[in-house]
Design brief:
The protein is of the alpha/beta class and 355 residues long. The chain has helices spanning 11-21, 38-48, 56-62, 77-84, 101-113, 128-138, 158-162, 182-192, 275-281, 293-306, 315-334; strands at residues 2-7, 28-34, 51-53, 67-70, 90-93, 118-120, 145-153, 195-203, 214-221, 226-232, 241-248, 251-256, 262-268, 338-339. Bound molecules: nicotinamide-adenine-dinucleotide.
């Protein structure tokens, strides 16, 4: 049985605490939570009859904890993970893992030093149609890859951004690319392979925030295929879709729904047994945009820790997707095609705004 604790008791903590606290994850339990806002910590603690703290160090020192999940604002992930690593407990960190590559490197280094496994939450990788798509790619069913595209068309109005001061700020969050679309950017790279270059444009269309609410990106992958990212939180009046399409010389797959959970097209030139059932068996739209993936994600964390298996999304994988987003921001600022690997000079992510 693994004992989990949470640092940060805000919006996403509801999802984590319900999974861990209501015994929905086999061999896992929730033992303590921490938030600098005592009322938030107390609320979750009382719901599950567990301890609560306002100081993460006190929690780590007083409680018997195997894994600690960092669910604080994105701009604090690095500071909090780096502080927690010294306890040599495994660490789950919400996406994005950090807002600068230097921070991501330090997180990886220090977790290795203290033998703490670092898990970056990318729960959409565990969506059943996404796993099915990955299986087809690994079996080389697409042949030569031609085009990979993602669309994040969600609705986040000014009220959403006003809920917390950190939202939409360069130093703490970034825009739709770093926050809402970070799952889809990760999926695109996971399916299509390493990116060679990006060219991007963005705008802040319908809300008053520092970063972008809308972006378009063209990508060239190292295997020669092309890609497109369309990401916006400026859809009105409600969420439309979170989707991915992979086109190859021998097949086409599109997954849509709100959170990449609904198989929309599964077409291959060379059919195999089971293809006809895929559309029926892999098309579950979840009740909210978080999807069902956090449950499968935690099951993976437990399996990785107890059975000493590699993490699917470790610090290096989390860093890769951060590097891609930073290259996109660099392209937006320079109005030029940016080739990876690169060193950011103009990307504003993780920087205090001068305005
Ligand atoms: N995987 C997903 O689908 C998903 C969905 C939503 C949010 N997230 C990520 O989760 C993170 C949190 O988002 P949120 O919407 O829950 O934010 P939030 O603002 O609602 O919650 C953050 C909480 O962290 C607390 N906190 C800050 N510093 C602390 C400290 N030193 N010790 C203890 N607690 C501290 C704050 O008081 C706050 O309650 C973000 O990085 C976000 O990108 C991921």
């Amino acid at each position: 049985m693994l004992k989990f604790a949470l640092v940060g008791c805000g919006r996403i903590a509801k999802r984590h605490s319900e999974l861990l606290g209501l015994n929905q994850i086999e061999k896992a339990s929730l033992v303590a939570v921490c938030d600098i806002d005592i009322e938030k910590a107390k609320k979750i603690a009382e719901q599950f009859n567990i301890s609560y703290y306002t100081d993460m160090d006190k929690m780590m020192q007083n409680e018997d904890i195997d894994v600690v999940s960092v669910l604080t604002e994105s701009g604090y992930h690095a500071k909090h993970v780096i502080n927690l690593a010294k306890y040599s407990k495994h660490i789950v960190v919400e996406k994005p893992m950090a807002l600068t590559l230097d921070d991501a490197d330090e997180m990886i280094r220090i977790c290795d030093k203290y033998n703490a496994k670092l898990f970056v939450v990318k729960q959409n990788r565990f969506n059943v149609p996404v796993l099915k798509l990955r299986e087809a790619l690994e079996a080389n069913r697409f042949g030569k890859l031609v085009l990979g595209t993602i669309r994040v068309r969600w609705c986040r109005d000014q009220n959403y951004y006003n809920q917390a001061d950190w939202r939409g700020k360069w130093s703490m969050d970034g825009g739709v690319l770093t926050n809402q679309a970070s799952h889809h950017v990760d999926l695109l790279e996971w399916m299509m392979g390493d990116v060679e270059s990006v060219f991007a444009k963005s705008t802040t269309a319908l809300v008053n925030i520092e970063a972008e609410d809308t972006a378009v990106v063209t990508l060239k992958f190292k295997n020669g295929a092309l890609g497109i990212i369309e990401a916006t939180t400026a859809v009105r009046p409600k969420d439309l879709e979170g989707s991915i399409s992979i086109l190859g010389e021998k097949g086409t797959v599109e997954i849509g729904g709100f959170a990449v959970n609904k198989m929309l097209h599964w077409n291959f030139t060379d059919k195999i047994d089971g293809d006809d059932e895929v559309m029926v068996n892999y098309s579950v739209n979840p009740p909210n945009v978080y999807g069902f993936g956090h449950q499968a994600y935690y099951e993976h964390v437990v399996d990785s820790v107890l059975n000493n298996k590699a993490q699917l999304v470790d610090g290096l994988v989390g860093r890769k997707s951060l590097e891609l987003v930073m290259a996109i921001y660099e392209s937006i600022e320079t109005e030029k095609e940016v080739f990876l690997r690169f060193k950011p000079t103009r990307c504003k992510l993780g920087q205090i705004s001068e305005e």
